[in-house]
């Protein structure tokens, strides 16, 4: 197969947005689509090689897998080894144990499944997982484990009608992806069945499913349109964009158009074949391997967002390591003369490497992240990241139908009339035990309706979020309509909705921070007013202050590294982040039966506390721990005890 420099340049177009997106450079909110472009390129090139060899009756499964080992494994293993060394020095026990598990998954090409199983609302932020990027390599390797076998079967029993055999599979995978984005977004993102169609787009091109464009103008316009689709995705998508699904069609079809027209010598093809882009494309695999762990370890060491100079230094390090990896690892193995260049030797090398790395991963797991590296105090602080009310999760994030039908958990005094509703988000779950104790002491009973990431407000839709927030709040309204509820306690991390999400109501005309704040304010005022007008007493809990980063990690790192790391917000910062919320509350203050303001106590000293009794009070950046938030018990009891009349402020 003739080498195409324009495809090398397209690799550069793929990796650069990924790099900038992961470095959190403004303006490239959709840089993640570079991975999808990679998938199309890979599907095209590998399928073209397989098909050519099969047509010439010289294809060998052993030879194919041996080439994949030499192409993928050496550079990957060098990166994994270096990451393991750095991680053993830098990572705290909880994080090193997770790293060890992901190391095993990466070597076995199942890291996409590993990170999918880890994913969820309380999953730690991506920028603290050094091997997260290996999920895409796992998708590719799983694809190429089965795809050659499928083509061989079609060649033998389907008379070589590859296009007719591949197209239905691609369409089915795309349909699964569309369904998955709406119903199982984490699975849709990570797993092969919902990603295979992206590689198959390239495969269909290589198999001749699309005839060559006739005429110079058609090719030129096709190349420009393809590059435009990729650029449009990079610059207009964001982390709120549902993905992959139909939105992944834009970068994938864009890549397909660029590949399909590039051989015709188009303007886009010539641009991509220029020296700098070709060089970046040649090192793109190594650049992809190295960029993510470098950025993760830099952020981990800083325990704060990187500044401009730090980001520039990290990107320079990524580039330097990529060049070294390409020059001294990738290139020699492609040219032969390596101890693993031969067939059986490659498989033997892969087996030995897998055993060694799996053993290292198992050692990190069974040693609880090699916690003997640190003092007992560091270990105890770090372990607070697991100090959660997981036994209460079955009561949480119920389906809207269950809410409307009253199939909910109840808390409080046994045998008492259920006249209270605890309505909230994950903070209602995290503090459910404290509310249960308070209700018991007051001799009352409550039903619990809480859902991760959904503000307890009527008429509000969270944009780009898979949770059924609007349907859930509608179901809560139907539950209240059923009668019996005379008190509603609204518990949520309001600050997070104003700061980190996009929300909309019937009056929203665009999706941005300003309109989100306006929609939330209208929703808060409307919800409190609606409930109050119906004679229901409303008890509103303000946001907890939280901290800048994961509290157990930051506090444990400060102890372990003997370095001042202060994750706390100042009281002024807390007020600034909650300014819109406070403004809305002021307009309905006289309609509230009581208001819980724990922040007054936590921020009384000018900085909002992150620990008590030498341990973190949050198990992440804002959710209270199960055992170290007891100081809130009395304020919560007073908060619930207050009835109608003048508003009581419980601290």
Structure description:
The strands form three sheets. A seven-stranded mixed β-sheet has the order 1-3-2-5-7-8-11. The chain is built from 28 helices and eleven strands. α17 packs antiparallel against α24 (551-561). It has 651 residues and is an alpha/beta fold. The protein is globular and about 80 Å long.
Helix count from the secondary structure assignment: 28
Chain-averaged pLDDT: 93
Overall 3D geometry? globular
* Contiguous runs where pLDDT drops below 50 for at least 5 residues: none
Radius of gyration (CA) equals: 28 Å
Strand order of the largest sheet: 1-3-2-5-7-8-11
Q: Beta-strand percentage? A: 5-15%
Secondary structure: number of strands: 11
The percent range for helix content is 55-70%
- What's the end-to-end separation, in Å? 72 Å
Largest sheet: 7 strands, mixed
| SSE class | alpha/beta
Write the layout of secondary structure elements.
Blueprint: H1 5-22, H2 34-55, H3 61-90, H4 93-107, H5 111-118, H6 134-157, H7 162-183, H8 185-190, H9 196-206, H10 216-236, H11 249-262, H12 267-272, H13 275-282, H14 284-302, H15 308-335, H16 343-366, H17 376-382, H18 400-404, E1 410-412, E2 418-424, H19 426-430, H20 432-442, E3 445-450, E4 461-462, H21 469-481, E5 487-491, H22 494-500, E6 503-504, H23 513-533, E7 537-541, H24 551-561, H25 571-577, H26 579-588, E8 592-596, H27 598-602, E9 611-612, E10 615-616, H28 633-641, E11 648-650
Parallel strand pairs: 2-3, 2-5, 5-7, 7-8, 8-11
Antiparallel strand pairs: 1-3, 4-6, 9-10
